[in-house]
Write a structure and sequence with these properties.
- The complex is a heterodimer of chains A (327) and B (281).
- In chain A, helix 1 runs parallel beside helix 8.
- Helix content of chain A is 39%, strand content 21%.
- Chain A has two domains: 166 residues, Rossmann fold; 138 residues, Rossmann fold.
- Chain A has 327 residues and is of the alpha/beta class.
- The two termini of chain A are 34 Å apart.
- Chain A has a seven-stranded mixed sheet with strand order 3-2-4-5-7-6-12, with helices on both faces. In chain A, strands 9-11-10-13-14 form a five-stranded mixed sheet, sandwiched between helices.
- Chain A is built from 13 helices and 14 strands.
- In chain A, 59% of the residues are buried.
- Chain B has 281 residues and is an alpha/beta fold.
- Chain B has a single domain, classed as Thiamin diphosphate (ThDP)-binding fold, Pyr/PP domains (Rossmann fold, 3-Layer(aba) Sandwich), CATH 3.40.50.
- Chain B has ten helices and five strands.
- The longest helix of chain B has 29 residues.
- Chain B is globular, with a radius of gyration of 17 Å.
- The two termini of chain B are 29 Å apart.
- The chains are: A alpha/beta (327), B alpha/beta (281).
- Bound molecules: thiamine diphosphate (TPP) and magnesium ion (MG).
- Magnesium ion (MG) binds next to loops of chain B.
Chain lengths: 327, 281
């Protein structure tokens, strides 16, 4: 595997890059700037950085006001606090008002590890997806994070970007381009470099199609490699844009797959799995298995142990796929 | 409830001894876990020792849900190690549990989980929520005409949360003289000094303006803490807050006053040095 890097690190670097290009970019944090990596921006642009203290609701309100008066705010804290703690502020002061605020939340999911359930957001995608006008992006590696943050900055309207604490492998060997509302088929690997979705133009049929976002994309790819060796044909799609979700792509995938498996580091309620089921059920019903955290809170443990504990491993994905293709 | 004058000196010695043991547990536990929050646990150690080992909290280790017990809420939930140590040493659960801090399947989660640990009243970890829950407990006590008291420990950075002040308003509005808040005023939060990040001072005057009786004390002087606890229990008609001036990382020289020891744990060498210092107290 290639270089390991956390998506939050890529966020910090990209903020700095953007800050140098655009003087309207302002950054807010709530006493977690070293963890969210907004400290990188704060160091170079102290006058455009606001650490509001442990006061997340206030941070969201201030971000809304800054956006209202012409600034491009990025507000960051842990995902639990950025969404749950401030839900009504995000709802009314940002989403309903339609303000151009980017909420970039780190420490999402169980890979937070030892801090335990209180700090592991497993419902943030669901919360943010439910807000009208909110874009939800869940990048899978550092390279894609940079592109997603750039796309968020260029997009007019509120965006939620979900970032992780843990160092993870690069999924994309080079910049693949990033478009809000578009998914990419990473497996089977494109015959022509960069032409990710071309595989759907033929009439191939897949035993199992994985649709994943965030840290689980790499795991699904690993599973697909193993399964192909066993004669189970697979497709893997990266659905970093969870909202708007790529309906066209999902319907195409549904049409050419015997079954679909959704993978996410999030509750199975309201996240990517729900989004996929909504699209397939309404357009082209296929059997779907939704993998994630099953309606329970997280707990303390190392990130690796927790991934195993909750079945977020390529081995578990393989097992599910084998069972699906058995009969 | 309190010891008589004759035994007062020995009681103070006893509490100091317990505070030392708790500090030793804190550095050992977090070192073993490889993660956790030693700084804010150490700054609270004397306060928590006085509460649990100075006969201040009326609790029964073999009946943690005893309806008439005093309630203690650790609003700054990241200081879980200080609470776990005190509860274990008061017999609420086996001391061996302390070795499992933050491990998969352990009752001792990174932040206190009231469903798993006897003696933990409410789950905390997301800051700013404890005082509201304490207000609820104090209101229930009044409704039921019970004489239990509710104690809650807050961080000074935590006082930046608006909810703390919503709760402060409610506590004095309802004249909750069965509620005592303690602020671990160590001057630090994660990103630096509280005054630099988002000043909360003058914290005494803020609580005063919200209708509270305010005490100020050196949070590491056990005799003074015991005196002020007694006085706070005597306040009638309004809630009391004790602003306890403390040093983050207290007891381990290289952790004292250092923001980086908020969420960093000692390596083997540092642990040895810390234990040497704590055992010499
Ligand atoms: C709502 C919320 N926001 C942010 C955090 C992350 N966090 C954990 S501890 C801490 C700093 C706490 O400072 P303080 O209250 O002064 O505690 P102490 O110095 O006693 O450790 C922060 C920001 C949190 N746990 N909860
Ligand atoms: Mg503090």
């Amino acid at each position: 595997m290639s270089e390991m890097k956390a998506t939050r690190d890529a966020y910090g670097e990209t903020l700095l890059e953007l800050g140098r290009q655009n003087p309207d970019i302002v950054v807010l944090d709530a006493d977690l700037s070293s963890s969210t990596r907004t400290s990188v921006f704060a160091k170079e642009f102290p006058e455009r950085f606001f650490n509001v203290g442990i006061a997340e609701a206030n941070m969201i309100g201030i971000a809304a006001g800054l956006a209202h008066s012409g600034k491009l705010p990025f507000a960051s804290t842990f995902a639990v606090f950025a969404t749950g703690r401030t839900y009504d502020q995000v709802r009314q002061s940002i989403a309903y008002s339609g303000f151009n605020v980017k909420i970039a939340a780190s420490h999402a999911g169980i890979t937070v590890g030892e801090d335990g359930a209180t700090h592991q957001a497993l419902e943030d995608i669901a919360l943010m997806r439910a807000l009208p006008g909110m874009t939800v992006l869940v990048p899978c590696d550092a390279r894609q994070t940079r592109l997603a943050v750039m796309a968020a900055a260029a997009h007019q309207g509120p965006v939620y970007i979900r970032l992780g604490r843990a160092k993870t492998p690069q999924v994309y060997p080079q910049d693949a381009g990033f478009e809000i509302g578009k998914g990419l088929v990473l497996w089977p690997e494109p015959e022509i470099q960069g032409r990710y979705n071309a595989v759907l133009e033929g009439d191939r049929v897949f035993d199992v199609a994985f649709v994943a976002c965030g840290i689980t994309v790499g795991l699904a790819l690993e599973a697909a490699r193993t399964l192909e060796g066993e004669g189970i044909s697979c497709l893997v799609a990266d659905m970093a844009s969870v909202k708007p979700v790529d309906e066209d792509l999902l319907v195409k995938i549904a049409r050419c797959s015997k079954a679909m498996v959704t993978c996410e580091e999030h509750s199975v309620i309201g996240g990517l799995g729900s989004a996929v089921c909504q699209v397939t059920a309404c357009n082209h019903p296929v059997p779907v298995v939704t993998l994630g955290i099953n309606d329970e809170f997280g707990e303390s443990g190392s990130a690796e142990e927790l991934m195993k504990h909750y079945g977020l491993t390529s081995e578990h994905y393989c097992k599910v796929a084998r069972e699906l293709t058995k009969g | 409830m309190m010891h008589t004058a004759g035994s007062k000196k020995s009681q103070i010695q006893f509490i100091k001894q317990k505070a030392r043991e708790i500090r030793i547990d804190i550095v050992k536990m977090t070192a073993k876990a490889g993660s956790g929050h030693p700084g804010g646990s150490l700054s609270s150690a004397d306060i928590v020792a006085a509460l649990y080992f100075g006969d201040v909290l009326r609790v029964k280790h073999d009946e943690p849900d005893w309806p008439d017990r005093d309630r203690f809420v650790l609003s700054k939930g990241h200081a879980a190690p200080v609470l776990y140590s005190a509860l274990a040493r008061r017999g609420f659960f086996p001391e061996e549990w302390l070795d499992t801090l933050r491990q998969l399947g352990s009752p001792l989660q990174g932040h206190p989980d009231c469903k798993r640990v006897p003696g933990v009243e409410v789950s905390t970890g997301s800051l700013g929520q404890g005082l509201s829950m304490a207000v609820g407990m104090a209101l229930a006590g009044k409704l039921d005409r019970k004489d239990y008291n509710v104690w809650v420990l807050l961080g000074d950075g935590e006082c930046q949360e608006g909810q703390v002040w919503e709760a402060a308003m409610a506590a004095s509005h309802y004249k909750l003289d069965n509620l005592i808040a303690i602020v671990d005023n160590n001057g630090l939060q994660i990103d630096g000094k509280v005054e630099d990040v988002m000043g909360v001072s003058p914290i005494d005057d803020k609580f005063k303006a919200f209708g509270w009786h305010v005490f100020r004390v050196d949070g590491h002087k056990v005799d003074l803490l015991m005196d002020v606890f007694r006085q706070a229990l005597d306040v009638k008609g309004k809630p009391a807050v004790i602003v306890a001036d403390t040093v983050k990382g207290k007891g381990v020289s290289f952790m004292e006053g250092e923001k980086d020891w908020h969420g960093k744990t000692p390596n083997a060498g540092q642990l040895e040095e810390a234990l040497e210092q704590l055992e010499a107290i």
